[in-house]
Design a protein that fits this description.
Blueprint (H helix, E strand, L loop, with lengths): L1 E5 L2 H18 L4 E4 L6 H12 L9 E4 L1 E3 L10 H8 L11 E2 L8 H14 L5 E4 L21 E4 L2 H7 L12 E4 L2 H5 L3 E6 L5 H7 L19 E6 L8
Parallel strand pairs: 1-10, 2-3, 2-6, 3-5, 6-9, 9-10
Antiparallel strand pairs: 4-8, 7-8
Bound molecules: fructose -6-phosphate.
Catalytic activity: alpha-D-glucosamine 6-phosphate + H2O = beta-D-fructose 6-phosphate + NH4(+)
Organism: Fusibacter bizertensis
Family: Belongs to the glucosamine/galactosamine-6-phosphate isomerase family. NagB subfamily.
Length: about 240
């Protein structure tokens, strides 16, 4: 794993954006794996800036998001579909028909999950996947103790994840308890991965991720087995490293 320690959130976002820009310039029809949450918002801002300056185009790219809450309609203010519209998709030229996010309201969620992986494979697989990390070490919504071989599937969110994500909802009781998420196996099949971490609350998870111990109890630890991971970690998130 290539570990880059940076000063702060802004530098993390800039460095991540540079890797995305290089990916798009090298391969305009790249398949990008995208994430939601606070962590990648700065990355999306930087990419929008590069797009507005005419340096890159997403015209030929394809995007697959990691996850979506089960039970939230697309238009729900906290759906990840809505997050991606507001923070990225409506601000760049990535064609609508190549923006993929799993549906949290599919009648048959098992079929939705199966078809999501099939669709990724049919587009040639993910070239570059961006990941945040949960305080409990989750990647996507793969919570501790889920098997590493899981593909896209329905997951029950941990209490801690529900608490963490309650900041986006009016009340903690409104946070969905289930999500549909790419599995660890789906994520590990990406050709390259960028893991981003900012803030001292991620310190413990980062320390465990890099401890050398690979265990489903700390899902991000599996990334130590991937041949092409760049972890961009700010000083606060790296503060527990020796
Ligand atoms: C989001 C996702 C999650 C988040 C993680 C960190 O699509 O899959 O794994 O990356 O929960 O969230 P933030 O960035 O809000 O701290």
């Amino acid at each position: 794993m290539n570990i880059i320690i940076v000063k702060d959130y802004e530098e993390m976002s800039r460095k991540a954006a540079h890797l995305f820009v290089a990916q798009i310039l090298n391969k305009p029809n790249s398949v990008l794996g995208l994430a939601t949450g606070s962590t990648p918002m700065g990355l999306y801002k930087e990419l929008i800036r590069f797009f507005n300056e005419g340096m890159i185009s997403f015209q030929s790219a394809t995007a697959f998001n990691l996850d979506e809450y089960v039970g939230l309609e697309k238009e729900h203010p906290q759906s990840y579909w809505r997050f991606m519209q507001e923070n990225f998709f409506t601000k760049v030229d990535l064609p609508v028909e190549r923006q993929f996010i799993p549906s949290g309201v599919a009648e048959d969620i098992a079929a939705e999950s199966y078809n999501y992986d099939k669709n990724i494979t049919s587009k040639g697989g993910i070239d570059l996947q961006v990941l945040g990390i949960g305080r409990n070490g989750h990647i996507g919504f793969n919570e501790p103790d889920l098997k590493f071989e899981a593909r896209t599937h329905v997951v029950k969110l941990d209490e801690q994840t529900i608490e963490d994500n309650a900041r986006f909802f009016d009340d903690i009781s409104m946070v969905p308890t289930l999500a549909i998420s790419m599995g660890v196996k789906t994520i590990m099949q990406s050709r390259s991965i960028i893991l981003l971490a900012s803030g001292k609350e991620k310190g413990e998870a980062i320390k465990k991720m890099l401890s050398g111990n690979i265990t489903p109890e700390l899902p991000a630890s599996v990334l130590q087995l991937h041949p092409s991971v760049t972890a961009i970690i700010d000083l606060a998130a790296a503060s527990m490293l020796d």
